[in-house]
């Protein structure tokens, strides 16, 4: 039996899921190195994702009672396993939401999201980042060095939402110079699509949402047109804006049937529909209208293959994801932060930052 003081040393605080609707900031055992490829990270800053709200609603049943949530964050390396060569104690690191072993068939293809031993496991199948400490498996493939002098809060946006928006939305949608792009959903992911689509200078970016505040933010982020689909007919507006042709790229960033079906209805011949949203229900596919239109529909789970590139665009100030951060909390106030994040329309919330202070 460890003495009281030693035992205390092995405890930490974390945000723990206890079944649908139930989360608690409570004591948990501090993680330790299990495998030689692991790193133990002291969390500095983390955030809450829309996916965490899906878990809280009970939409992700494989998340067990007692699981620590969270798959985003930056921190400091506390300890590394004997096989880790790229990182050492004291390094400041960005944590990827995807863990890749780097050796399996999928990892060899750059499809880390489907890694046979990893993928999206943090805050899902293993304990996550909404804690004072987290164990990161396959550390060499799943962590990134933070360059000196970086805005570490901004880099939290690189754990998940920026690579998700860029890979699943912009890359899969093949956004090209001069394209007309519709982004359906102006939440943090839709706004991150808007920011990263601009790498390719589309001619028009049309944002569709039901929240006027988010549409106003989209305007300040460079959207050329905004449509509130609760008060305007989004289909008609988009047809008017495009001489009845429709858009070259329609990016779905909500995850419900109505928004995906809107993308189907507004796509121009030769266009691409890129799905980013997490869907819980089946969607009607209008092949009777689409079969002859030379369109492409893509789906993807983020592979985080673009993280290094995005990191350079942020550190060189070509991209400013800190614009997505609206609220700050101390990590110990995370239950309040969940409330603010859940009531996004009322609180005008985009992303929240939690600091382990
Ligand atoms: Zn996420
Ligand atoms: Zn793998």
Characterization of this structure:
The chain has 2 domains: 208 residues, Alpha-Beta Complex (Quinone Oxidoreductase, Chain A, domain 1); 136 residues, 3-Layer(aba) Sandwich (Rossmann fold), CATH 3.40.50. Strands 3, 4, 5, 6, 7, 14 and 15 form a 7-stranded mixed beta sheet that branches. The mean pLDDT is 96. By secondary structure, it is an alpha/beta fold. It contains 14 helices and 15 strands. The two termini are 30 Å apart. Bound molecules: zinc ion (2 copies).
Structural class: alpha/beta
Tally the helices. Answer: 14
Distance between the termini: 30 Å
- What's the gyration radius in Å? 21 Å
**How helical, in percent, are the residues?**
25-40%
Number of strands: 15
Largest sheet: 7 strands, mixed
CATH class of the largest domain: Alpha Beta
Q: Unreliable runs, pLDDT <50, ≥5 residues?
A: none
Count of structural domains: 2
CATH fold annotation of the largest domain: Quinone Oxidoreductase, Chain A, domain 1
Q: Name the hetero compounds present.
A: zinc ion
Topology order in helix (H) and strand (E) letters: HEEEHEEHEHEHHEHEHEHEHEHEHEHHE
- CATH architecture heading of the largest domain: Alpha-Beta Complex
Report strand %: 15-25%
Q: Mean of residue pLDDT?
A: 96
Overall shape: globular
CATH superfamily of the largest domain: Medium-chain alcohol dehydrogenases, catalytic domain
